């Protein structure tokens, strides 16, 4: 089975035979595009996914892109066009690689930023030692970052529901990276996390533990908050699929090409161990080809949701749907709408 990656121009020039390939649209960051140059040093997680059938991915992911920006039709007009233009393929899934750059942005915010809008605490703000690695993290900042990311997913959900109601949104966590001074391109890009950890005074022997808390927290956010808010949402739990880089190294180490990107073989290992079985379970219901019918303009959230997004607050919980996701933490909206697997 083949996974082919195509560009927006390939789509517009009608170079893709969707009678032979399942149409999938993708967006996001470097884990969905490339993490160094030349690109084949890392490739991407998308390159190594095996759906169990022939899939054509039209990919809008690029390094540095923020999840919070992905639904913006002005910033990403081509992606929005592919989701709303008449005559587009009948997209069966939306692959999203996102959230990592948003987290890095919040890690880089210094002591001059209010603690509710950054992730790291500085020495006079550290919690008691008994709190473990979480003593270095701002809980209020984490809540606000998650709300920002949740708002982005709600908008992507609205775009999906207005045009391809049976489409599944598929995303991944990340894996346990080691904060270290290991940039890409001989220092042209990165390092991404280590400078923030260093500036916050966090002891170097705690960097891996703190990063692990953040990756686990991101997983919990996707599963407990996003998945309970929107239906048809698939999370690939990619944690623990690779060998972490050794602390203090500055180049390729184990499965990692640099601080936050795997090598091509590392992504291949991760896909096989943590992605392919779930992807194949869902993709068995995705069909090739047919062109979508009349497609609506880019929809906007309505009612309570629109008001809550405008105010930066979560919307009230929707009534539980039959076959819902079940109980989650009290601080999380309980159950959203659900879709079947069939695309």
From TrEMBL:
Low complexity composition-biased segments: 308-334
Record-given protein name: SGNH hydrolase-type esterase domain-containing protein
Region: Disordered, residue numbers: 308-343
């Amino acid at each position: 089975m083949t996974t082919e990656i195509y560009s927006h121009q390939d789509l517009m020039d009608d170079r893709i035979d969707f009678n032979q390939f399942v149409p999938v649209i993708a967006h996001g960051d470097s884990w969905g595009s490339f993490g160094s140059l030349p690109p084949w040093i890392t490739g991407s997680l998308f390159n190594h996914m095996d759906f169990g059938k022939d899939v054509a991915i039209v990919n809008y992911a690029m390094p540095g892109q923020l999840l919070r920006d992905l639904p913006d039709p002005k910033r990403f007009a081509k992606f929005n066009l592919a989701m709303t233009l008449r005559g587009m393929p009948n997209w069966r899934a939306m692959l999203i690689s996102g959230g990592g750059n948003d987290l890095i942005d919040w890690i880089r915010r210094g002591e001059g930023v209010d603690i509710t809008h950054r992730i790291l605490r500085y020495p006079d703000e550290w919690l008691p030692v008994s709190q473990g690695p979480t003593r270095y993290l701002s809980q209020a900042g984490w809540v606000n970052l998650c709300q920002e990311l949740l708002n982005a997913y709600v908008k992507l959900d609205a775009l999906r529901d207005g045009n391809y109601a049976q489409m599944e949104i598929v995303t991944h966590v990340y894996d346990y990276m080691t904060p270290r001074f290991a940039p890409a391109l001989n220092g042209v890009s990165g390092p991404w996390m280590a400078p923030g950890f260093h500036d916050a005074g966090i002891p170097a022997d705690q960097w891996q533990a703190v990063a692990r808390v953040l990756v686990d927290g991101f997983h919990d956010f996707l599963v407990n908050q996003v998945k309970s808010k929107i239906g048809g949402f698939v999370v690939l739990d990619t944690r623990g699929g690779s060998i972490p880089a050794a602390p203090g190294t500055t180049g390729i180490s184990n499965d990692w090409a640099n601080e936050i990107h795997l090598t091509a073989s590392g992504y291949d290992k991760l896909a096989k161990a943590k992605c392919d079985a779930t992807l194949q379970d869902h993709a068995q219901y995705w069909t090739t080809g047919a062109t979508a019918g009349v497609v609506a303009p880019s929809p906007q959230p309505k009612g309570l949701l629109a008001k809550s997004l405008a105010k930066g607050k979560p919307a009230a919980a929707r009534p539980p749907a039959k076959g819902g996701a079940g109980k989650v933490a009290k601080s999380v909206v309980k159950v959203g709408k659900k879709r079947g697997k069939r695309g």
